[in-house]
Specification:
This is 5-carboxymethyl-2-hydroxymuconate semialdehyde dehydrogenase. Pfam families: Aldedh. Belongs to the aldehyde dehydrogenase family. InterPro entries: Ald_DH/histidinol_DH, Ald_DH_CS_GLU, Ald_DH_N, Aldehyde_DH_dom. Keywords: NAD, Oxidoreductase. The protein is of the alpha+beta class. The chain has one domain. Helices cover about 35% and strands about 20% of the residues. The chain is built from three helices and two strands, in the order αβαβα. A two-stranded parallel sheet has the order 1-2. Helix 1 packs parallel to helix 2. The radius of gyration is 17 Å and the shape is elongated. The two termini are about 30 Å apart. The model has no long low-confidence stretch (mean pLDDT about 85).
């Protein structure tokens, strides 16, 4: 399920719900900390606060990477 919440209560309820076995989250670090606090022993995967930097070196195969 995908959920876009603009306030903590809906997300907190989902993370804490007993039927939810795992949580995947992309977003800010503050929200990620809140999820970790509320997830208990559930599995979770997060991508937090990154800006997706990319390094391209001189020997890169540009055609292969495109």
């Amino acid at each position: 399920m995908w959920c876009r919440a603009t306030a903590p209560p809906p997300g907190d309820a989902l993370v804490r719900h007993h039927d939810v076995r795992a949580v995947s989250f992309t977003g800010g670090t503050a929200t990620g900390r809140n999820i970790m606090k509320n997830a208990g022993l559930k599995k979770y995967s997060m991508e937090l606060g990154g800006k997706s930097p990319v390094l391209i070196f001189e020997d890169a195969d540009i055609e292969r990477g495109a």
